[in-house]
Amino acid sequence: MKTINKIIQILVVAIFLPIVFTGCSDDDNEITDPGTETEVPNFILGQESIRVKVGAENKVTVDVKEGGGEYDAFILNANIAKAETVDGVLKVEGVANGQTSLIVSDKYNRYRKVPVSVYTTDKLELSHKTFDLVTVLGNSGTLTASVVLGNGGYEATSNNSAVGVSVNEEGIISMTAISKKAEFTAIVTVKDCTGLSEEIAVTVKASMDPFTNAELETIMLDGTRRYFYNGSKTDSSYYTYLNEVTGEGKQRYGWDYYSYYWYKLEFKGNKDVGTKEDAVFDYYYYRDGSVLTPVTMKIIKNDGVNIWGVFSYINDEQEKLYTGYFCSPI
User: Fold this and answer.
1) Run of H or E including 320
2) Strand-pair partners of 264
3) Which of 95, 130, 162, 225 has its CA 20 to 30 A from that of 67?
């Protein structure tokens, strides 16, 4: 009967203990049995909080400085930690990352509540310490790294606003930036819920290559007529396609829509594979504005039926490399 009464008393106390209960003084944390008339010793714990690593091998002993004996203890959230009493010695074992509380009682029905923080590791480990983020000049690129070992609750910051960073609950770190002519660096700092932190040095560099080899291969696999600029298809079936020689003797490919909008790519020389001289891109569309600029142009494929061409130019004011490509019947 005595055991049943004590369990009931513990449960009642756990329910009515304040939500915020962090001190260990007699005034703040002691609940006494009003019917007790005998002089009793103080009930003092040596820890105001307990931090314990997950695992049975990492148990933490509760330091009872003074008390009435017959100690008992339990954890408010058994999914995060558990408590045990062996020969009067109280121990706490971490089960999973998180925060909970330990409730300790003595034979005089006095109780103490101690915050418990459970963690997994003493070291935060990331997949990378340095990163080169290379993008076509003036274009955005994203790299990802990951938390290899940590305690969850991750946050990420960058010391350079030109590099954006985010991290999700799984510890996947995304870093995004737009390259400039001059390379620049940012230090990305990742922290976990326990305050552990690690850094990644991200260097952002610009590439002057308008297309990768893989992108060129993809372009050449498609034999449909099309005209792309700045990553978007510009033509439509109701446009007038251009495949002609100008009065200056230049080859002209592109399209025209009643002279309201147009896409004209002109170059000197034949239609064989190779770099073309004196290439000019003349484009106008209400959504994109107008462009009239010399470009670097190459015919990358000629199969006797169609030709595939690519071109690029740099807008110095914007520090951006623009690209385009087309496929057209010869």
Assistant:
1) strand 320-329
2) 254, 282
3) 95
Could you report the per-residue pLDDT of 36-52, keeping only the tens digit for each?
Answer: 566 889 999 999 999 99
Residue located via tokens 């935060």: 124
Burial, 286: exposed, middle or buried (Cβ in 10 Å; 0-12, 13-18, 19+)? Answer: exposed
Per-residue pLDDT tens for 254-263? 999 999 999 9
Tens digits of residue pLDDT in 279-324: 999 999 988 889 999 999 999 999 999 999 999 999 999 999 999 9
Instruction: Identify the CA nearest to 33 among candidates 15, 6, 11, 70.
Output: 6
CB burial string 63-82: b at 16+ within 10 A, e below:
ebeebbeebbbbbeeeebbb
Give 216's contacts (C-beta < 8 A, 6+ positions apart).
300, 310
Residue 15: is its pLDDT beyond 60? no
Q: Same domain, yes or no, for 146 and 238?
A: no
Domain endpoint, select from 99, 119, 139:
119
- Residue 4 clears pLDDT 50, i.e. is over it: no
The angle formed by the CA atoms of residues 51, 55 and 59, to the nearest 5 degrees, is: 50
Say yes or no: 49 and 113 in one domain.
Answer: yes
- Per the CB < 8 A criterion, the answer to whether 149 and 125 are in contact is yes
Phi, psi dihedrals of residue 69, rounded to the nearest 5°: 85, 180
d(CA 279, CA 320): 19
Task: Give me the CATH number covering residue 114.
Answer: 2.60.40.1080
pTM: 0.72
CB of 227 closer than 8 Å to CB of 261? no
Q: Structural domain tally of the chain?
A: 3
Domain limits for position 229:
213-329
Spatial distance between the Cα atoms of 262 and 249, rounded to a whole number of angstroms: 20
Of 207, 238, 268, the residue at which a domain comes to its end is 207
